[in-house]
Amino acid sequence: MSVRAILDIKGRAVATIAPDATLAQAARLLAEKKIGALVVAAPANGISGIISERDIVRALAGQRERALASPVSEFMTRKVVTCTVDDTVTDLMQRMSAGRFRHVPVIEHGRLAGIVSIGDVVKYRVAEMERESEALRDYIRTA
Ligand code: AMP
User: Fold this and answer.
1) Residue closest by Cα to atom 6 of ligand 1
2) How many CA atoms within 13 Å lie on the side-chain side of 69?
3) Residue nearest to atom 15 of ligand 1 (CA)
């Protein structure tokens, strides 16, 4: 199964923030949208980084209140691991687990085309397992 199947269910909207926005603005956006990470936007729908709640916690632990007025670009991860709509969900899970992160932006034709979180993957896998066990039950009933 591919990443496309997840995007078809959850949609392709991605919450982004500008690199010069403050960490306080990023925290407010994460809270408002009830999400864990924001893609840091670059011109032409590109990506200059990713900032997650974990980066904000780390910044606060290190710099305290000063961090909140600092730009997102100071704390974001610049080397972002991405995927394409044709990558498999298994591949995506391996990438998340190897890199120890919970969000992967999706790139299509060089542009940001969605984002998949670990929560989306778990939801998708549970639905898939339910479909499989229902199919097995049907098979046993009619065998
Ligand atoms: P997360 O588990 O997604 O909250 O992120 C944990 C750490 O990994 C944070 O420092 C993020 O900036 C970073 N991170 C999150 N997603 C990615 C990604 N797709 N590629 C590289 N780093 C990431």
Assistant:
1) 101
2) 2
3) 101
The per-residue pLDDT string of the chain (143 residues; one tens digit each, 9 = 90 and over) reads 899 999 999 999 999 999 999 999 999 999 999 999 999 998 888 899 999 999 999 999 987 788 999 999 999 999 999 999 999 999 999 999 999 999 999 999 888 999 999 999 999 989 888 988 988 998 998 87
Using the mean position of ligand 1's atoms as its centre, give its distance from the Cα of residue 39 in Å: 10
* Structural domains of the chain, with CATH: 3-142 (3.10.580.10)
Indicate whether this model's pTM tops 0.85.
yes
User: From atom 16 of ligand 1, which residue's Cα is the shortest distance away?
Assistant: 103
Tokens of 77: 């991860």
Alpha-carbon torsion, ordered 25, 68, 96, 43, to 10 deg:
50
3, 39, 77, 84: which to mutate for ligand 1, most atoms within 8 A of CB? Answer: 77
Residues 124 and 96: beta-carbon distance below 8 Å = no
CA distance 129 to 103: 22
